[in-house]
Structure formats: structure tokens, C-alpha cells
């Protein structure tokens, strides 16, 4: 029964796509079923946002013809239209291939950045509103960004891990195009980095065959065990983890005045000097 209902509802949406807005009686006549049965399917489609009901003749500004209540016409929504095949990916691929051939990869990158500019602006506003007064740690901003991306259709989620956080996107609207043009993924990664306020690293992408797009967000450096301060000092001095050796020929610092000089230091030095 469920498969039959699904098939009938697909036929209803196909008729609305082919013939435009119709009444339940008109749809029933084309399907060969009763108007009551069609209304049951229309109610189910309306509950999922694929169909909406309007009063009056289509294109007549909601007016009515003759006396009585205006007829109820059912329209296919954008959600309903999206269930039918589209050639958007083919069109995008054709356009980007032409741009890449005629203008080079930098031009493709410029197109990707322009395409994401609107998304970045909307998400930036959402992140700033969500984190206002709570600090701007990258991991906290990633949580707010995940909510904003989900509203944009990316089905995103953020989590905290030992080394910081991860932003996962379970849907990619341009996965098929990005598989051929990685500039789209690169531009999106740069947008994520700007929105969370730190350098991020892409670990996986749907475009490359992974199940989810995963972005690593580094966290703050926490105090380590005893001796870690010395390590950080050496790192600041040039990424050295061991003390620097004395420069050959450099004069040693004088001993403290209270320390008596060793009487056999010269002899010991000579004994250790190779012949």
C-alpha cells in the first residue's frame, strides 16, 4: 500500500508539473480515481511542502469566476520541483570547463569565491549573533557555524576533540562539480577558516569519495607537564627542543668571585685533549 501511495503521489506531482495548477477534480479525472482519494494524496504532499493550495483561478490574482466560493487549485512548490531531475551539474561543469580552458584555473577559483561570497556573508552574521558576549574561541564559533550551514542545506555538525574541534558536513550541494574542480573545496575551506577565526585543515571531502566533509579546527595550546615551558621557550627561539651548544672559540662567562679556581683544571683539560 505504501508503494502504491508513493507512486500515486509521484503521478500527482508529475501532472502538476506538466499541466500546471489544477483542482482535485481535474487531477482525479486524469488519474481515474475519486476526488476524495486525490485530496488524501494532496494533503500528504502539502504536509511535506511539495504542494500548496490556493484559492481562485491561477494567474487571476486570487479572484473567482461567477458566483460561489472560488475553486481550490493545487500548485507544485519549489520543493516539489526539486524532486524531479535537473541538469544543473552538467550546466555548471560545462561552464567551468570553458572558463578553465579559456582563462585558466585562477579564473575558476575566482568563480568559486564569488559563488561562496553570499554564503559567507549570511553565515558570518549568524555566527556573530550566536557568539555575541560569549567570546570568540574557534571551537565555539564552529558550533555556531554548523547551525548556520545546516540552515543552508549542508547538514553540518561540530564536535570537540582533544586537539580542538571538527566541523562535519554531511551534504555537499556541489559535490559532483567539486570532484572535477577542487577549487570549490579550497574556496569553501578558506571561508570556514575566516568564519571560525583560525587556520583550518580539510581532512575529508564528499567530492573525493568520502562519506562526509570533515574540517579540523585546532584548539588552544593547553599547559603541558613539567618542562613544557622550556620546550615552548626553545620553540619560540627557533623550533629547537634542546639547548644550543656553545659557539667554538667563544669566551666563557667568568666564574662567580666566591668560587675558588680549580688548581688542576688546566691539567684536566690537557689530559682530555687528543694528542
Write up what this structure looks like.
- Helix content is 50%, strand content 12%.
- It has eleven helices and six strands.
- The chain has helices at 2-19, 24-31, 35-47, 78-81, 88-103, 105-131, 138-151, 175-178, 183-196, 228-238, 265-272; strands spanning 51-55, 72-76, 156-161, 164-169, 201-204, 213-218.
- With 275 residues, it is α+β, with helices and mostly antiparallel strands.
- The strands form two sheets. It has a four-stranded antiparallel β-sheet with strand order 3-4-6-5. The protein has a two-stranded antiparallel ribbon with strand order 1-2.
- Helix 1 (2-19) packs across helix 3 and helix 6 crosses helix 7 (138-151).
- A hairpin with a 2-residue loop joins strand 3 and strand 4.
- The N and C termini lie far apart (101 Å).
